[in-house]
Write a structure and sequence with these properties.
Elements: H1 14-26, H2 29-36, H3 40-54, E1 59-61, E2 66-68, H4 70-98, E3 103-108, H5 110-115, H6 117-122, E4 137-142, H7 145-153, E5 159-162, E6 172-185, E7 199-202, H8 206-215, E8 221-224, H9 228-238, E9 242-245, H10 246-249, E10 257-261, E11 267-274, H11 282-296
Parallel strand pairs: 3-4, 3-5, 7-8
Antiparallel strand pairs: 1-2, 5-11, 6-9, 6-10, 6-11
């Protein structure tokens, strides 16, 4: 590492500072890289830039974790203050440039976008009397939760509806609801039919895949897709099985059978996040309020069992019980 490159701390960009602070917080390269949305090589280069600017090593690398050296501890407080000041300045400029805009960039995971966002649009409250009553223009961006965090931190979206908690310190999050997953299949699948050797269609979720592997069902094929229309088609017409969150499994127009309530094994939390009120235009604040209102006005408790699909129902043959988990998978 060239410690005489001429770079100074004042030459660092926000990404380098954010990477340094993330590593100080997590003391782990892989976790810190994930937090700031960078690949491992790109994250390492950012840390090297900070060390070059500081004139020497800032971390002691261990076999698993890293330790902050005295030189790193010395620059940690001022770099924190610098990032806070930059974020505040960016927020003020963003608020001014977007204050007159009615467009709100809303990022969400696919299932929430398909089955919850329409209720958000219905819940948009009109302006106060005497003000322009035109509704905000909502631009929808669908992605997995990890990608939504990066988009939010980079300012590419104003609000995020996601199912995994964001770990970035400069993000404001609110949990909207918790919902269970259901084991579902085609209506033709009788309650006690064997599930061994059947085809499965799953959302791209490590937790869902881990759950399926734990059942030892020797699936004939496993299709991973975030396309809800494809999952529905495979279940209804091709006889696939799946595990789906309640917001999907309870859709009345889906011709599927709910075979088991998995609330003791798979649940997920749905969150609303943004970067703080300084970043929100009046239109974005209206959409934010509509999201909260739509979640509060839900007529059904997402954790309530449906009919006889509660945990006391007899399991289909070949389905083994699995351990209880608290966090839910992403879809």
């Amino acid at each position: 590492m060239d410690l005489h490159s001429g770079m100074r701390l004042v030459d660092l960009d926000v990404r380098s500072i954010r990477s340094f602070l993330a590593l100080c917080d997590t003391r782990h390269f892989a976790r810190a890289a994930k937090e700031v949305g960078l690949s491992a090589p790109a994250f390492t280069r950012q840390i090297q830039r900070v060390e070059e600017a500081a004139g020497g090593p800032l971390f002691a690398r261990g076999s698993r974790d890293v330790e902050l050296l005295p030189r790193g501890a010395l620059i940690l407080p001022p770099l924190k203050r610098a990032l806070v000041a930059l974020v505040e300045a960016e927020g003020l400029l963003s608020q001014r440039s977007r204050a007159a805009s009615d467009e709100v960039r809303l990022g969400c995971v696919v299932s929430v976008g398909a089955f919850f966002v329409p209720h958000v649009l219905d819940a948009l409250e009109p302006h106060a009397a005497g003000e322009d009553d035109e509704a905000p223009r909502v631009s929808l961006c669908e992605a997995i939760s990890q990608a939504l965090q990066v988009l939010l931190l980079n300012g590419d979206i104003d609000l995020a509806l996601h199912v995994e908690p964001f770990e970035a310190p400069d993000v404001v999050s609110r949990r909207l609801w918790t919902e269970p997953f259901y084991l579902v299949g085609p209506p033709s699948l009788v309650e006690h039919a064997s599930l061994v050797g059947r085809p499965w269609a799953l959302p791209p979720s490590q937790r869902a895949e881990q759950w399926l592997r734990a059942q030892d069902l020797s699936p004939r094929a496993v299709t991973l897709t975030d396309n809800l229309a494809t999952i529905r088609q495979l279940i209804e017409t091709q006889g696939h099985l799946s595990v789906l969150p309640a917001i999907i499994a309870r859709q009345p127009d889906w011709r599927i059978a709910l075979h088991r309530d998995l609330r003791h094994e798979l649940v997920r939390n749905v969150y609303l996040s943004h970067r703080g009120r300084a970043y929100l235009s009046p239109a974005a604040e209206r959409v934010c309020a509509a999201v909260v209102n739509a979640a509060a006005r839900s007529e059904r408790d997402p954790m309530a069992p449906i009919g006889d699909t509660d945990s006391g129902r007899a399991l289909p043959r070949g389905l083994a019980p699995t351990p209880t988990h608290s966090a839910g998978p992403a879809l």
